[in-house]
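Collaborator request, handled under Task 6.
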Amino acid sequence: MDNMENIKISQIYMDGGKLAGVARPNATASPNPTFSWSVLSDAFDNRQQACRVRLYAYDPVAYGIAADMPEDTLLWDSGWVETEKQRMKYSGKPLPEGKMLVVGVRVRDVFGNESREASEYFVNGLTDMSCASWITHPSVKKRVPTCFRKDFELAKQPVDACLYVAGIGYHDVMLNGTRANVFLDPAHTNYKKQ
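Structure tokens returned to the collaborator:
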């Protein structure tokens, strides 16, 4: 059996929340998110001995859903850190705002075997709100359905876009009359962690 199969990453988390992949990436507004992971091994009494976390800029047009991110997209590399702790806080350059990012995690076990790099996607939410504003109404009453609408025109066709909605899952988002696939999404959020 390949040594890389002796230990592997089974799940990656960011600030306590499970990353769900490119179909519905999580978002963070933290300048230094903490990544954590769970590890599986097929060997008795095996565990993580060291870890390496890398962060990449993601361009869906250029790379699609890539298994391996090109090195020129690398934003941060922790290098190998000797630790059994399955978490690491980001300590690289400021994260690009409003962009899709990829976190990659690799571990080494007590026998010296390295796992394959497991990766997940997330979005760095806008932290400079001067370029966007909340769509609100001052006289909204509790438990009354409210429709918010914002008309705008774009100078050119966007390559990628991200809409930030704070509706606790009770929102119905439409763009140009087409319903976005986000009704009652997320179904459950742990507000103590996210």
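The cover message to the collaborator said: "Helices lie at 60-63. The two ends are 39 Å apart (CA to CA). Please let us know whether this matches your experimental observations."
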